[in-house]
C-alpha cells in the first residue's frame, strides 16, 4: 500500500504532554456530567414539585402505567435542550477552531459551562432552568468540537487511539461522578437538585484553568501562519528535537489546506464523501444503540422495573462504574486490536443484551406492579453488559474515527458535521425516549436492537481500519485502498482544490 514505508516519528511521553491530554479531556468530563446529572435530577421529588408538579402527581399514583409515568414533553425538554444548543453551536465552534485555534475554543467552552452551572443552580423558574441547559449546550458544542481534534493532533501516531479515547474515558467518569452526586444529594431536601446542577462548575473550573495551561496544536499554529511557534510546540509535545519529518508533513498538509478557501463547500465534493459519510453515520449509530436512553434515564428506567428511588440511583452508579472500567479496555486495545474488531464485537454483545432486556420486560413487566427482585437484578446485569460493550467500542470510536480521518483542509468543518449529527440524534433520543417508552413499552429495546444489526453491517462493508496510519496520510493509505471508497478518490481531489 502507498505510504507504508513512512518512518515512525520520534516522540517521548513527557509530564507536560500528559498534562495537556488530561486537562483537555476535562471537556469530556463536563459533557459526561451533563449527560449523567439530568436523569437523577428529573427523578428527584423536590425538583419535580418545583418545576413539574403534574409529573410528580402522576408519579405518586401506583395505578399509573409503569411505562408512562414520566412522559412529559417539558421534562424531556429539560434534558434535550442542551443537545439542540450544542448542535447549533458546533458550527460556530468549527469557525472558532480555524480562526482562533483549538486552545481558545476550549477556553470558550469552559466559560459557557461555568455560566450554565450558575444559571441552572440558581433557577427559580422553568425558563431559567432551560436557559441554563442551553448555556451548557453551547459549551458542549464548543468542547466536543475542539477537544477530540486537539487530542488527535497532539498525539503521537502510535498512541493516537488511546490518547483520543481519553475524551470518552472522561465522559464516562463525568457520568459516574454525576450518578454519585445525585445519589448523595437526593437525600438533601429541598435543594439537593441545586447542588447537583451547581457542582457542574467544579470540572468547568478545571477546564477553564487547563485551557490556559495547554499548548496550541502544532497543526493549528502552522495552519494560521505561525510556523516558528508550530515547530517549537511540536518539539515541546514530542519531547525531542528531531521533529523535522513530522513538521514537514504538517506543513505539507497545511499548504494543501490553504488551497481550499471554503471548507464546507469542499466537504460536498465527491472525494470528501468517505470520511463525511462515516463521520456522520458513526454518530447516528452511536446514539441509536440506545446508550443515551439508558444513561440519561437510568434512574427512571430502574424505577420503572421496580427499584425504589435510592436503589435506582445506586443502580445508575453501578452502570457508571462499569462504563468507566470498560473504557480502559478500549484505551488498551484500540491501537493493538484496531477499530473495526472492537466495533463488530460490541455489536454482537449489545444486540444480545438489548434483545434480552426487551424480552424480559415484554413478558414480565405489566403496566402496573413491578418485576420480582431476581428479574430486576437480571435487567441490571444486562444493562451492565450492554454499557460494557458500548464503552470499549462505539462510545470512544464514535469520536476517535471522525477526528482522525478528515484531511486538514476539511478537518474542523467535517468534525462539526459529526458533532452536530451526534447532537441532533442525542436531542431526538432525549426528547422522545420517555414518550417512546410510554407508547412502545418493551418494544423500544427491540427498536434499538434492530439499529445495532444495521450498524454491524455498516462496519463490515464500509468502515476501514485506521490503526497506525498518520493523521495526514489517510487519503493515500486508507481511502484510496478501500474497495468501496476508492471509487470516490479519483481526480476529484485535484479538481476540487482548484474549484474550492
Cα distance spanning the termini: 29 Å
Q: Rounded to an integer, what's the Rg over CA atoms?
A: 23 Å
CATH class: Mainly Alpha
H/I helix tally: 24
Write down the domain tally: 1
| Fraction of residues in helix | over 70%
Q: What is the fourth-level CATH superfamily?
A: MFS general substrate transporter like domains
What CATH architecture would you give? Answer: Up-down Bundle
List SSEs in N-to-C order.
Answer: HHHHHHHHHHHHHHHHHHHHHHHH
Low-confidence parts, pLDDT < 50 over ≥5 residues? Answer: 1-7, 493-500
Could you tell me the number of beta strands? 0
Fill in the CATH topology. Answer: Growth Hormone, Chain: A
Largest sheet: none
Q: What general outline do the C-alpha atoms trace? A: globular
Structural class computed from helices and strand pairing:
mainly alpha
Compute the average pLDDT.
87
Describe the structure.
It is found in: Membrane. One of its GO terms (cellular component) is membrane. This is Major facilitator superfamily (MFS) profile domain-containing protein. Keywords: Membrane, Sugar transport, Symport, Transmembrane, Transmembrane helix, Transport. By secondary structure, the protein is an all-alpha fold. It has 24 helices and no strands. The protein is globular, with a radius of gyration of 23 Å.
Describe the protein's topology.
Blueprint: H1 15-42, H2 45-51, H3 53-60, H4 73-99, H5 102-121, H6 126-154, H7 160-185, H8 192-198, H9 201-213, H10 218-223, H11 227-238, H12 244-258, H13 263-267, H14 273-288, H15 291-296, H16 298-304, H17 309-333, H18 339-364, H19 373-391, H20 394-405, H21 411-440, H22 443-462, H23 474-477, H24 492-499
Helix pairs in contact: 1-6, 1-7, 1-9, 2-3, 4-5, 4-6, 4-21, 5-6, 5-8, 5-9, 6-7, 6-20, 6-21, 7-8, 7-17, 7-20, 14-20, 14-21, 14-22, 16-17, 17-19, 18-19, 18-22, 20-21
Amino acid at each position: 500500500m502507498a505510504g507504508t514505508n513512512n518512518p515512525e516519528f520520534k516522540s517521548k511521553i513527557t509530564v507536560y504532554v500528559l498534562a495537556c491530554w488530561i486537562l483537555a479531556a476535562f471537556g469530556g468530563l463536563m459533557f459526561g456530567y451533563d449527560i449523567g446529572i439530568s436523569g437523577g435530577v428529573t427523578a428527584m421529588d423536590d425538583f419535580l414539585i418545583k418545576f413539574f408538579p403534574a409529573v410528580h402527581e402522576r408519579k405518586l399514583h401506583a395505578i399509573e402505567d409503569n411505562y408512562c409515568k414520566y412522559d412529559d414533553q417539558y421534562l424531556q425538554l429539560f434534558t434535550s435542550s442542551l443537545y439542540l444548543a450544542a448542535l447549533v453551536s458546533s458550527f460556530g465552534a468549527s469557525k472558532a477552531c480555524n480562526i482562533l485555534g483549538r486552545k481558545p475554543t476550549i477556553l470558550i467552552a469552559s466559560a459557557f459551562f461555568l455560566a450554565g452551572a450558575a444559571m441552572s443552580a440558581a433557577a427559580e423558574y422553568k425558563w431559567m432552568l432551560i436557559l441554563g441547559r442551553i448555556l451548557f449546550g453551547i459549551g458542549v458544542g464548543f468542547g466536543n468540537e475542539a477537544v477530540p481534534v486537539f487530542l488527535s493532533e497532539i498525539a503521537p501516531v502510535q498512541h493516537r487511539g488511546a490518547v483520543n479515547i481519553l475524551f470518552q474515558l472522561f465522559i464516562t467518569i463525568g457520568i459516574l461522578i454525576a450518578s454519585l452526586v445525585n445519589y448523595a444529594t437526593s437525600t438533601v431536601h429541598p435543594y439537593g437538585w441545586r447542588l447537583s446542577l451547581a457542582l457542574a462548575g467544579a470540572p468547568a473550573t478545571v477546564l477553564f484553568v487547563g485551557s490556559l495551561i495547554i499548548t496550541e496544536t502544532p497543526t493549528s499554529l502552522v495552519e494560521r501562519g505561525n510556523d516558528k511557534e508550530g515547530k517549537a510546540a511540536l518539539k515541546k509535545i514530542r519531547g525531542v528535537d528531531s521533529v523535522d519529518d513530522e513538521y514537514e508533513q504538517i506543513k505539507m498538509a497545511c499548504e494543501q489546506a490553504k488551497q481550499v478557501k471554503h471548507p464546507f463547500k469542499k466537504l460536498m465534493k465527491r472525494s470528501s464523501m468517505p470520511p463525511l459519510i462515516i463521520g456522520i453515520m458513526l454518530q447516528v449509530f452511536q446514539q441509536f444503540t440506545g446508550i443515551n436512553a439508558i444513561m440519561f434515564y437510568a434512574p427512571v428506567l430502574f424505577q420503572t422495573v421496580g427499584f425504589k428511588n435510592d436503589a435506582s440511583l445506586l443502580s445508575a452508579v453501578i452502570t457508571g462504574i462499569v462504563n468507566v472500567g470498560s473504557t480502559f479496555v478500549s484505551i488498551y486495545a484500540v491501537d493493538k486490536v484496531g477499530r473495526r474488531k472492537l466495533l463488530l464485537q460490541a455489536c454482537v454483545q449489545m444486540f444480545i443484551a438489548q434483545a434480552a432486556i426487551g424480552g424480559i420486560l415484554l413478558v414480565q413487566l405489566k403496566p402496573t406492579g413491578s418485576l420480582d427482585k431476581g428479574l430486576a437484578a437480571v435487567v441490571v446485569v444486562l444493562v451492565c453488559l450492554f454499557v460494557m460493550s458500548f464503552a470499549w467500542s462505539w462510545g470512544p470510536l464514535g469520536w476517535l474515527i471522525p477526528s482522525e480521518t478528515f484531511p486538514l483542509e476539511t478537518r474542523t468543518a467535517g468534525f462539526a458535521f459529526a458533532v452536530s449529527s451526534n447532537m441532533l440524534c442525542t436531542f431526538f433520543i432525549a426528547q422522545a425516549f420517555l414518550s417512546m417508552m410510554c407508547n412502545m413499552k418493551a418494544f423500544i429495546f427491540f427498536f434499538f436492537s434492530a439499529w445495532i444489526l444495521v450498524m454491524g453491517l455498516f462496519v463490515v462493508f464500509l468502515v476501514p481500519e485506521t490503526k497506525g496510519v498518520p493523521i495526514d496520510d489517510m487519503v493515500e493509505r486508507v481511502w484510496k485502498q478501500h474497495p468501496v471508497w476508492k471509487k470516490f478518490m479519483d481526480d476529484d481531489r485535484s479538481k476540487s482544490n482548484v474549484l474550492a
